[in-house]
């Protein structure tokens, strides 16, 4: 079949503000062929109704074995190279394997457990703010806070012991960004991948030798009892360490940029902190760090919202485009702290709905509430046009967020202590 020319989804202007392009695509129809910088093509779903239906469509599977020859021809330069041992995590599984693997992680992220740990999260956030410069010189909130807080929280929740948490390199998260086999940066990329695989092996060995009641220990036990293969265990640890923190780091930056564009909303939240749960939902809807989903595949040629899609071609959903669909959210480009049109798709939908959604929501409430509450006069220290947006294929966020503020105030309450396990 004759395929339409793909629409490029890359470049500095696109990463800075993809929403005008998403609006044009949405108005033209729900499905479009798109091109990524690695040369990978995909079918992009844009509207809210089409996105929700696609995310729940049983015809679409996530296992990479469904990909066709055209897709496989580019597989070596896609995120998480196919020859690594980190491929078979939840995002690349279909039922019944997906169901069994997801069951192993859900309890660790249950709302009741997250709520019990919230005082500890607040303690971590306050400690990071305490370490920021006290005067009006300002700081980079990515380096000083957003790149640190989600990982510290994650280590608490999954039972990553302090001596291993201290050795984790944030650069290892870059293995999810495509680097082609002829790219000059490929050797460095492969070195990062090997280092991460070695680190995961060390984590597994440590939890096997010193088991506890944390999620990592439970996953190691599942491997030892035959519920997981060795590759599945390594892949799930990889997913926890990377997908469990980097999107929250990026969401902190997109939310802060949105609030700094809307000082009236920022001031209202400082005066009415009880609004934070609703505000976090609206900030995620307005500019989600989960910009695009990972790949899905049809087992046979089929109609997808009026477009014929070949079997094994990759299908992705733009969560950002869906969350600004005017047919679902009136005046969608406006930050409205009183919006009541129902849930966004920032955490996905269907069986692959983010299992850590409750944790991410709590992290964002604590992180944003602490930064806004304790840094009066918070403002950008550079023109917004100079903010460096990450070139990631699937996510949105800034790699730096230089800010200034009038002062660094003390925590509103004494640090809260709660029992917590690092097992």
Q: How would you sum up this structure, described in words?
A:
- Belongs to the cytochrome P450 family.
- It comes from Streptomyces mashuensis.
- The structure is a single chain.
- This protein has 423 residues and is α+β, with helices and mostly antiparallel strands.
- The chain has one domain (7-404): Cytochrome p450 (Orthogonal Bundle).
- It has 17 helices and eleven strands.
- The strands form three sheets. It has a six-stranded mixed β-sheet with strand order 1-2-3-9-6-4. It has a three-stranded antiparallel β-sheet with strand order 5-11-10. The chain has a two-stranded antiparallel sheet with strand order 7-8.
- β2 (31-35) and β3 (41-45) form a beta hairpin.
- The protein starts with 6 loop residues before the first strand and ends in a 19-residue tail after the last strand.
Pick out its properties.
423 residues, alpha+beta, Cytochrome p450, six-stranded mixed sheet, three-stranded antiparallel sheet, 8% strand, disordered C terminus
What do the pLDDT scores average to? 91
| Major sheet strand order | 1-2-3-9-6-4
- What is the count of structural domains? 1
- Assign an overall shape: globular
Record field, number of beta strands: 11
Distance between the ends:
55 Å
N-to-C SSE string, H for helix and E for strand: EHHEEHEHHHEHHHHHHHHHEEEEHHEE
Structural class: alpha+beta
Q: Number of helix segments? A: 17
Organism: Streptomyces mashuensis
GO molecular function, one term: monooxygenase activity
InterPro entries: Cyt_P450 (IPR001128), Cyt_P450_B (IPR002397), Cyt_P450_CS (IPR017972), Cyt_P450_sf (IPR036396)
Family: Belongs to the cytochrome P450 family.
